[in-house]
Amino acid sequence: MEYNKLIAVTGLSGLFELVSSKNDGAVVRSVEDKSTKFVSNRQHSFSHLDSIEVYTNRDNVNLAEVFQAMAASSEALPSSSDAAAIKQYFSKVYPDMDFTRVYASDLKKMVRWFEILTKNNIEITRGSEDSSEAPVEKAPEKTEKKPAPARSTAAASTKSAPAKKVNAPRKMA
What we know:
The chain has about 170 residues and is of the alpha+beta class. It is about 30% helix and about 15% strand. It folds into two domains: about 1-50; about 50-125, Orthogonal Bundle (Arc Repressor Mutant, subunit A). It contains five helices and seven strands, in the order βββββββααααα. It has a five-stranded antiparallel β-sheet with strand order 4-3-2-1-5, with no helix packed on it. A two-stranded antiparallel sheet has the order 6-7. Helix 2 crosses helix 3. The radius of gyration is 28 Å and the shape is elongated.
């Protein structure tokens, strides 16, 4: 399972892997219990973890950067029920975070998601970093195309004309 395929679904707790998407929703697999289900986009919204940003005092940072700071920290994860302990934890782990715009519920979500990621041994990487490290394939060489023979205009005009209606009702004036 890759970090760039993970999504958060509004109204559902936990993280999900995007299996496939459809016009009216998506098929997702839970990271925790591996159950697969269809989620309608009429009732739920989907957010890729790669696209989520966190407010800081300077520029916004990607959620992966906060997760990496959490992984590098020696601080123990706080209980997800104690909002004050979570805020204190993030002030030590990521002090640049703007706590006036990042709510306690968001901090709790980040702790829960980080627990899920570490429990399932998912490596936290950004999608843009993966694409820059991937080898660049060479574009195929262009081959010369022969021009198509010109069609006669008489044959083209007879094919494009619509068929006449045989049993059309007569208009009364």
